[in-house]
Amino acid sequence: MKSLQGKVAIVTGGARGIGAAIAEELAKRGVAKIAITYLSNTSAAEGVVSKLQALGATAIAIKADVGDLASAPTVIENALDALGTKELDILVNNAASTLLRPLDDIKIDDFHAVFNTNIGGPLFLIQAALPRIRRGGRIINIGSRQSRHATGSPMFLYAASKAGQEHLTRNLAFQYAAPLGITVNTVMPGPTDTDELRATGMAEALKNAATAEKRLGTVDDIAQIVAFVAEDGARWINGHTLNATGGAIMF
Q: Which of 93, 102, 147, 208 has its CA 20 to 30 A from that of 129?
């Protein structure tokens, strides 16, 4: 039997990059029903769904803006209804808003957009999902090394929001999830080879300078760690930030 046989999962931001790799790895480990959310790239989302189905999972894609906080209950309900279940085992909060903008150019709307997506989105999705998550379930937030490590890039709002997300993880794990037999953890990627990173123009510099192996992480590097946290063998890890940076930072 596969390690996650028969589980039900929701992965936000699952149409590409790290989110798509996480969804695929969960399916490889036996997750039976998977919903991914996506913001705009319908064709990419459909491609991921096809891959998940080829791996034997029942899979759907739901168009949703995680930063629209009022929509969180609807996202959870629609996902579970479409999958034909009332219960959930794994929630991966991967969708994020990344803003590279000098301090002088940041507007109030930028603040709300980044914080709504990176903190508000996970918070209200967890609020909506928690009554549906079975005992032994997993909530996994995807963080960033920016929450711990100033890099000189103009990612002030993103870094601050991810730091807040880490503290949200710890508080939820202690106060709410643990009594229900559910764990809440953050997986913190370092520089990872994604379309988003390449678009910043910083990929080569990070490859040469940021990690112990002198390479960028792959989306599979991160997906393997997330899938491990979802397994029963990780049941005693709770309220923790797992450093998935390849040595870019050490703590």
A: 147
- What DSSP assignment string belongs to 49-88? HHHHHHTT-EEEEEE--TT-GGGHHHHHHHHHHHHT-S-E
Instruction: Catalytic residue, from 22, 141, 158, 192: name it.
Output: 158
Burial of residue 178, with CB atoms counted within 10 A of its CB: 0-12 exposed, 13-18 middle, 19 or more buried: middle
Question: Is the torsion defined by CA of 146, 149, 153, 159 positive or negative?
Answer: positive
Residue 149: per-residue pLDDT: 62
Report the C-alpha gap between 48 and 60 in whole angstroms. Answer: 9
- pLDDT tens column, 130-167: 999 999 999 999 998 765 666 656 678 888 899 899 99
Judge residue 92's burial from the number of C-beta atoms within 10 Å of its C-beta, 0-12 exposed, 13-18 middle, 19 or more buried.
buried
**Contact status, residue 217 vs residue 246, Cβ threshold 8 Å:** yes
Active site residue 176: no
d(CA 243, CA 251): 8
Structure confidence at residue 1 (pLDDT): 82
Q: Are 27 and 56 in contact (CB under 8 A)?
A: yes
